[in-house]
Amino acid sequence: MVRLIDLTGQRFGRLTVIERSEKTAKDRNTRWKCICDCGKETIVSRNSLTGRNAKSCGCLRKELFESRRRKMLEKCLNNPDAKKNNLSTGIKNISYQPSQGSACYSVRIVRKNNKYRQYFTTLKEAERAKEYVLSRYKKGISNWNAKL
Length: 148
Prior knowledge:
Layout: E1 11-12, E2 15-24, E3 30-36, E4 41-45, H1 46-50, H2 59-78, E5 94-96, E6 105-111, E7 114-120, H3 123-139
Antiparallel strand pairs: 1-2, 2-3, 3-4, 5-6, 6-7
């Protein structure tokens, strides 16, 4: 029989072990009641604690996600060209598609699950098509997304 190692009072990441839990894991591993630095109580198995898998109650993951999201947002806001890629024309809904053979400019409009996409050889044609399609949409014409 394996001896039970008392983990009470020990610290694992942000978790501090308070006491042994009455619940046991499916693999008969002992579980421990822990309190996180954020104040939330959680029950964690011994293997998770000693194997360094459990570092917090879940608050650490949320904080890391938020900090990564904030950094990406700051990067986009500080660099206005970060959102543009080399396929951008600077005109909304029109992009440059060099792999389309002779048709290089793509117009793509999506409204309420209806999609319009067509390719044009010049930027002027693409702009005219975009304006035409949007005017038909605004007028309420049912087949606004039909190919020109």
